[in-house]
Amino acid sequence: MTLQDRERDVLTTIIEVYIATASPVGSRAVSKISTLGLSPASIRNIMADLTEAGYLDQPHTSAGRVPTPKAFRFYLDTVMRPSPLAARQRRRIAGDLATAGLEVGDLLRRASRVLAGLSLQVAMVIAPKQADARFKRIDFSLLNPGLIMVLLVLQGGLVRTRVIETAPEVTADNLVSYANYLNDLFGDMTVSEVRARLVRELEEAKRTVNALCRQALTLASSALDGEREAASEVIVDGTSNILGQPGFTDAEHLRELMRVLEERTILLELLDKTANELKTVITIGGELDRAALADVGVITAPYGAGSHPLGAIGLIGPLRMDYAKLVPVVNFTADTLSRLLDRRF
C-alpha cells in the first residue's frame, strides 16, 4: 500500500501522539491535532485502511489504535527528522566525559552512564577489539639485566604491558633503537596486520646479518605472544530504566528482556554491525529476530579514533521511544567519545 498524503498525515499524527502518551490513539484525538480538517468519521475510515494495511493495531480493550513496527519503520525512514540537541545536554555530555579516567574502559563506562542518565533508557557500548585497534607505539624499559618491561599502546587508548626476558647484555640504548625501528615498521597497522607482518619479517630476518632487526623483531614477537583476542566487552548501564515503562509491564516479557540484556550476545551483534557500517542505525521490532525484543527499538552509532572505527554505542528502549530527540543524544555522545579518544591516545 502506497500511502497518500492524508493517510501519511494521519499515521504520523497517531505515531507522534502514541510516542508522547503511550496510549492507544482514537480518531477524535487525531481530528483535534491534525491540520487536515477531516471529521472523526473520515479519520476512522483512514485508520481502518491503515489497520488493514498493517500500519496500525487495535488492542482488544480500546477503541483507539497503536502503531505497529511497520508504521515505525515508515516513520523513521520517511518522516522523522532529528531535533537539535540542547546546549545544556551538549555541555553535560562533554563535561562528564572530559572528567573520566585516563583508561579507555573508564571513558566507555562513563559514556554509557551519561547516555543512560540523559535518555532514561538502557545504554550500551562495545569496547574496542585489540585485533582491530591500530598500533600506535611500543616502548621498552630495562628493569634488570635480562629483564625488560614492554609497553604496547594502541590507538583508542588500549594499553598492554608485559615483562619479558631478554639477553643480559641488552642495554637501555639498545631498547631505544629497537623501539624506534619497530615504531617505524608497524606505524598505523592494526594488531592483526602487525602479527602477520611479524611472521614475514621474522622469516626474512633469518637470512639477514642485521642483529638490531632480529633482536627487535624477537622482542616484538615476545610482547605479542600469549595475548589472546578476547570477545569484545559490552558495557550496559540503566537497565532499571525499563522497569515500569509502558509496554514492559508484563512480568514474563520483562524477565525475557532482562535475560537478553544479561546475555549480551545480541547486543554484541547489533553494536558490531554498526561499528562496521560506520553510520547511525535504528533497528526495531521484528528486525531484531528475538521475541523478547518485538516491542523494542535500538539506536546505535559508531565511534573511533581519527578515521579508524573502534566500536559503537547505543540505546535500547520501547518501540515508542522519541527517536527524534534520542538520535542526536546518541550521535553527540559517540562524536564526543571519538574526539576524546583521538585527542588522548
UniProtKB/TrEMBL annotation:
Organism from which the protein derives: Solidesulfovibrio fructosivorans JJ]
Annotated keywords: Repressor, Stress response, Transcription, Transcription regulation
UniProt KW Transcription regulation keyword: yes
Any one GO molecular function term: DNA binding
InterPro entries named in the record: GAF-like_dom_sf (IPR029016), HrcA (IPR002571), HrcA_C (IPR021153), WH-like_DNA-bd_sf (IPR036388), WH_DNA-bd_sf (IPR036390), WHTH_transcript_rep_HrcA_IDD (IPR023120)
GO biological process, one term: negative regulation of DNA-templated transcription
Keyword DNA-binding: no
Official protein name in the record: Heat-inducible transcription repressor HrcA
Family per record: Belongs to the HrcA family.
Pfam families: HrcA
Its biological purpose: Negative regulator of class I heat shock genes (grpE-dnaK-dnaJ and groELS operons). Prevents heat-shock induction of these operons.
The Heat-inducible transcription repressor HrcA C-terminal domain, residue ranges: 106-327
NCBIfam families recorded: hrcA
